[in-house]
Amino acid sequence: MIPTNFDYFAPTTIEEALKLLDKHGDDCKVLSGGHSLIPVLKLRLAAPAVVVDIGRIKELRTIKVDGDTIRIGANTTHAEITSNADLKKHCPLLCETAAQIGDQQVRNRGTIGGSLTHADPAADWPAAILALDAEIVARSGKGERVIKASDFFVDVMTSAVEPNEIVTEIRVPKPAQPNAAVYLKVPQSASGFAIVGVAAQLKIANGKCEDVSIGVTGLAPKAFRAASVEAALRGKAIDDATVSAAAAKADAEAADAMEDIHASGDYRRHLARVYARRAVQAAAARA
Amino acid sequence: MSFLAKYIGQKVKRTEDPRLVQGIGHYVDDIELAGTLSVVILRSPYAHAKINSINVDAAKKAPGVVAVYTGKDIEGKVGLIPCAAAAPDMKKPDYPALALGKVAYVGQPVAAVVASDKYKARDAVDLIEVDYEPLEAVTDIEAAARPDSPVIHEELGTNVGWLYQAGSGDIDAAFAQADKVVSLKLVHQRLIPTAMEPRGVLAQYFPGEKQLNVWSSTQIPHLLRTTLAAMLGVPENRLRVIAPEVGGGFGSKLNVYAEEALLGWIAMQLGRPVKWIETRRENMMATIHGRGQTGTVEVAVKNDGTLLGLRYNVIYDLGAYLQLLTPAIPTLTGLMLSGCYKIPAIQLNCTQVYTNKMATDAYRGAGRPEATYLVERVMNRVADELGMDPVELRRKNFPKPEEFPFATAAGLVYDTGDYAKALNKALEIADYKKLRDEQAKARAEGRLVGVGVSTYVEICAVGPSVMLPSGGWDSATVRVEPSGKVTVLTGVSPHGQGEETAFAQIVGDMLGVDMNDVLVVHGDTDRVQYGIGTFGSRGLAIGGTAVAVATDKIVGKAKRLAAHMLQTDENSLTFENGKFVGAPDDKSMTIQEVAFHAYQAHNIPPDFEPGLVASYFFEPKNCTFPFGAHICVAEVDKETGEVKILRYVAVDDCGKQINPLLVAGQVHGGIAQGMAQALFEEAVYDENGQLLTGELMDYAFPKAHQLPRYELDHTETPTDVNPLGAKGVGEAGTIGSTPAVANAVIDALAPLGVKHVDLPLRPEKLWRLMNN
What we know:
The structure holds two protein chains of two kinds. Chain A is α+β, with helices and mostly antiparallel strands. Chain A folds into three domains: 7-56, 2-Layer Sandwich (Uridine Diphospho-n-acetylenolpyruvylglucosamine Reductase, domain 2); 58-173, Uridine Diphospho-n-acetylenolpyruvylglucosamine Reductase, domain 3, CATH 3.30.465; 181-286, Enolase-like, domain 1, CATH 3.30.390.
């Protein structure tokens, strides 16, 4: 719980931060809200020579609705997302997800960009980001690239972000039916992370599912889109039998299930199926 | 003794809180002495291993390092870690402050590095090379007791430390006469106390004065002083122990730890102040744990529900070594085996075993939650077997109020009680009949809803002194200063309980002064006369009584002087609202005026001792026995096993309440911890003795959002053991709630044929049960 020595930089512009990353390479870690990195430093699971604190880069802490796209700066805290009026109107799934992260202190410090980059397989954001078909913008000294949510999560604690990159923005296409969405989770009783979390965004017309996307976190080494469930729902009437049958496939994309002292793989699979059904039903009920 | 009721009985806000919520109080780590060095401890990564060698050369040469010590350096210089509760026939291993030759649990201190700051000390710890030879770990307590188990302490020849039997009455006859015998095997899982503030020690030595000062986050500053003096060979009157702000203890700081002795010794070696602040990981692996019993309870009962006898055969997990009170904890379980029922014959058979885990010891409730849990669980099993309502079974076996003092076959005499009254009140608040109707309806709809009742009695303010190794009394000095301000020195050592407030209320009312003029001083052995400390819900009932009696002595003495000065007879004066009145010509004197004259001493009676100071050491003649009834309504999610608490009603009776706000605070926190034990809290070691719940990411202590709203009420049955009539309430919530929640959840699962589930009632466990 006592970290090793490191050099600390607190740049105020992205350019300055990227220069530091280029200079220090693999010896460098990026600090945003600190809620993932600081515990790792304290436990000496990481001992970077340099920490670049991007928390003072103001341009990374914004929420903008830009036509059909919602742009959230990577340094925006979970608490800011929870209470943002534009998001409540245009994409309440983001608010609902943010509100279920950790506790108030964590939400006040932790950031969406930091959480996504850390790629904890039990974090809440991945489920929502996948369900919203969002894009993550990463910048390096060489320029900017846009990564699809479905390509972003690589493995346990591994995202597509390169060591010389900083996540700058999360771009979320405005959902057609903002209210037809939900994030449900079974929290691990100690950490509050998701044993399983399911985010669903639907589009329903005349009782029929016109579109659906479902993100599942906690179950597998990386969060994933429950494509089999989505396929079984798309174009179908949202009735109990259809939803139940579809949700039974919620773990189909999970080749491996996580196992720890809090839950077995079997139980996680079971929870994913139950909660996929509940999520679709709840989202449909809100439509 | 007489009281105003201006403060006593009122919901007075804690006077401690403004400094604490602003973060301007002083805990050990907030105290900064110039030139302080930091200490970091190297701890064993193995649960069981021989130490072949330790090489500290590289660590000693590391930047900033001043000294490195191992077990060999302190052998014969720092005394062994003491146990005050080991019976003479107990097999007891030596427990050095730094490991010597072997380690027996993960987290055991192996070496200490002293450096200019904690980062350098921590870096140097990684440079110490220890050649460990791992041995097979003993982790399962039932296996540990078997003859074929590896032996942890070879010199003892066995892992069985102590076989202990207690109880009275003809137990064989009870079982012979029974219509039915109901038995239940249950596990009281290990728990980690997890005080908000981890431990910490700061030590400073003055070689000229030969004075050692030790600041420690402890519940027992005086007992620690006596013990450290013996461990370090420092005269007790040259050793000062200070417990500054202490951020909770729950029993975990009712102890004497390696680091307290080590830091004192290192300060004396180096002549510089040294500080060690426990990290959360260290706190979880190397501060005492609680509970840790696996036992079978058997009850002999008549068909009409009359209890005849109870036997509890239990194996207790001592951990690797004995801490201060380790072996005593299950003896408290034994003493409370009668619960709040008439049971003519009781027997405890306790086998205490060593395992390769951290020592267990007192954790909130300390042995009593185990008793209440097992009694209240088996009462429900008995009710099931007899087809009785669990409430009726309880009611039938309560002693009546007029039967108190009530002697139990477990060996105690309960002071006062009206168990039916508390239960009836809880049933009324919960509307028990309606709850059962709603439950029937819910069950018909296929929902799993359960109602759990627990009625408990517990033991607080343990006394007389022969019942505790330290003695069971406590002390107070009350000084009315010349200005009329009042200073109270208490021998108890509050660390969150709020006695600065409660004692000021008592003194304020007794002296008729503003309670803000009363300063309550505690936790410093150089400022306060000897005392025992704060644990076992004793602070108010014993420490508060000492304060009240000392204050009463002050009033008596002041009255003598007032009578002298007012030229009247003492008996004609009365003391009202801080004034002595009743003198001729309506003359009167305030307590403040009397105090001034008591110190000035220009006009005092011939045999009058100047000053206005009184001390009292209160020796209780018995323990106190608070009680209550808790009712929980819970629903189990049929698909997932998740538990939702729908309602929680608690009626507690802690005797006279000095401050209902403090009582409510204790009950809230207590229920939270008891509920967490029932639902999710558990220290998990793997088969190699590695602690898998070694941080708050994995150890599920309760958070506010995980808890329901409580519906609290109380009855008030004063004790006759002390003049305040107060019994104590620090642990009641913990004791009453675990069985209430367990009974509710298991009742919810009853339609599926479930008769018992061990704690914690985690969703996957229930899901598997429902699917088998």
